[in-house]
Amino acid sequence: xxxxxxxxxxLPGIMGSALxxxxxxxxxxxxxxxxxxxxxxxxxxxxxxxxxxDPRVDDLGDGVTAAxxxxxxxxxxxxxxxxxxxxxxxxxxxxxxMTVGSIHAPRDDANFFAFPYDxxxxxxxxxxxxxxxxxxxxxxxxxxxxxxDAQVILIGHSMGGLVARFYVEALGGWKHCRALITIGSPHxxxxxxxxxxSNGFKKLVWDFSGLVRSFSSIHxxxxxxxxxxxxxxxxxxxxxxxxxxxxRERAVAARVEFHDAIRLARESHLNEPGYRQLLIxxxxxxQDTSQSAEVVNGVLRxxxxxxxxxxxxxxxxxxxxxxxxxxxxGLENQxxxxxxxxxxxWMTNAESALEPLLDTLxxxxxxxxxxxxxxxxESTTRPALGLRLESVFYPExxxxxxxxxxxxxxxxxxxxxxxxxxxxxxxxxxxxRVAPDAAHVETFADLAAGLYRLTVGPVTRGTAAPxxxxxxxxxxx
Length: 477
Prior knowledge:
Layout: E1 7-11, E2 17-21, E3 24-27, H1 34-46, E4 64-69, E5 74-76, E6 80-82, H2 86-96, E7 100-102, E8 112-114, H3 123-145, E9 152-157, H4 159-170, E10 177-183, H5 191-199, E11 202-203, E12 206-207, H6 209-213, H7 216-219, E13 228-230, E14 233-235, H8 248-269, E15 279-284, E16 292-296, E17 299-303, E18 338-340, H9 351-365, E19 384-388, E20 392-393, E21 400-406, E22 412-420, E23 428-434, E24 440-443, E25 450-458, E26 469-475
Parallel strand pairs: 1-8, 1-9, 7-8, 9-10, 10-15, 13-16, 15-18, 20-26
Antiparallel strand pairs: 2-3, 2-4, 5-6, 11-12, 13-14, 16-17, 19-21, 21-24, 22-23, 22-25, 25-26
Helix pairs in contact: 3-4, 4-8
């Protein structure tokens, strides 16, 4: 085990920080069903709408602050499906025997910090706040620990990786940074943002479409490569006015002022003495992931089919972020990635993902590290599980799970465990045999309303068996 002499800061993804308004929770969904939560907290959530934002100003003056990370399961259809950040924020400091601190009351002797941020805001605002924290705390840690050459290791899940990368590249944070590890981060955007902005967020009696469209952060998740088919041509969201409810001006600003700023800053750093490759992207694979979209009769429709120019073999991902998006433009074919067969929201929790991540941190924290960090080749020979699962099933819909076993040479016996989140509730366990590379659908009728965790794994574990994959879904009465 390596004693961690560096500072580690972990950033969650969108909606992964609890937000308070005037000192009271306004967004704190954790471990419960979304629709039940909105029944009680819907008015508070609605108050998070941003009426006007100047990205040069850190404080909107609306009384909203980021209080803490959400540690347990939280799922929002179209945006978030995550098991919670409790496991990773406990496991890292335990593994390296680190002292945990709070960004709200930093201690000089602490070198592990979770960094909650206001995920509604322009990510440049959050990046500036991250920079101020790192550049204040790092000297204090160096003085207290005696490690005068200590640096910061940034770990960002999903959008948190984009916040961290803007700090590293566009704000010059690379001078203080030993490594940036991004976990399922959409460096080139994700289709879920297009879907949410265009089709809105209106389910049953709630309509939060105007709320989510007010968030600058979601616009900065729009794909920056051609993924939308309009009148037979493949375009970027910033290149068309044809996508309903997406303001082209905001899409252009997100691309130019955020994504292009990162890319151009990196290109300029290549000529600076001491600059080196800092990025290690963790990539989720083998899960069915939306790859493209098309505007049909004025309505945006998502598809699993790849856009023009993307090989079908690369048209997968972690169920939320396409594989092609998890490596930034300009860094392709450099073999900096590390791969895990898991869904987006479990890449910070599942054993198959978390244990290799700890190994990576151990390598990064070692005294002698090469000038560049390199990843590991993806295994294409070990059987792998693919899971397709909707986030929510409404009345009159029967919950179903679609499974596929990749790279197997014979049928695989799988165990599905559907666990209600209510304390003391018994799980539903089912065993099925799935043929290689064949779609297999399991349905679960008569489930009570509520939130469920899903684990799919081999009946018999072994070196040739696929690793388990995970998901969550909600049943609405």
